[in-house]
Design brief:
Layout (H helix, E strand, L loop, with lengths): L3 E4 L5 E6 L5 H9 L3 H8 L8 H8 L6 E10 L2 E12 L5 E8 L8 H15 L4 E7 L3 H9 L3 E4 L6 E7 L7 H14 L2
Parallel strand pairs: 5-6
Antiparallel strand pairs: 1-2, 2-3, 3-4, 4-5, 6-8, 7-8
Helix pairs in contact: 1-3
The protein binds coenzyme A.
The site of coenzyme A has 23 residues, from helix 2, strand 5, helix 4, strand 6 and helix 5.
Length: 191
Amino acid sequence: MKPQHWRSADGTRLTLRPMLKSDAPLVKESLGRLSSETRRNRFFSAVREFSDETVRRLTDFDLASEFAVVVVRPDRGREIPIAGGRFVHCADGRRCEFSVLIGDPWQGQGLGHRILRTLIREAARRGLHQMDGYVLADNRAMLKLARAHGFMVDTSNEDAGVRIVSRDLPRPTPAIWPRLFRKLLKFGRNP
Ligand SMILES: CC(C)(COP(=O)(O)OP(=O)(O)OC[C@H]1O[C@@H](n2cnc3c(N)ncnc32)[C@H](O)[C@@H]1OP(=O)(O)O)[C@@H](O)C(=O)NCCC(=O)NCCS
């Protein structure tokens, strides 16, 4: 995927790009700054400390069966992670399971929409058929975000406090169409 660049409402330059192995140390620092509510909403428990092994699993993974993006802001030559999202392919090869995490000061500014849109696009491009996610039943922001992106919300048979959100993914556009479209546009301009 191509990196996305834009400015937040307060003018900060932000970039959304694939997660890199080298992001691990700063990802660990950013995870350490999360509130206990955000930790609970993302990891389903108020994780006290993020071990190097946990951070390694989030930043160094098999690119064929996982995808992860990070949103970074620049700070004295460093790229500070402020949000991220990922999906992992399920063993059936048809479905994937996603999660999104926005740092506390950045919540409610549309980053969730941007990240989820990117995950859906990439999962469809990979030919996956369905995207699922596990969300705490009282996580209103995530349930609202999921519904806005076409997910259906269902209860979990295993845990009354958890909702399962699922949506079908669009079929990938054959690579020929964008090229053909560009050619037609060019032809329209210079017949
Ligand atoms: C849930 C989360 C991903 C949403 O992302 P976000 O960037 O904060 O949300 P957005 O700004 O993109 O807004 C998403 C929608 O939720 C709504 N929303 C935001 N905070 C809300 C809240 N506390 N209660 C209800 N709705 C809320 C927004 O109004 C928006 O709806 P709209 O587009 O109709 O206005 C983010 O808050 C987060 O990472 N929370 C902690 C971790 C987590 O819950 N992860 C999900 C596990 S899969």
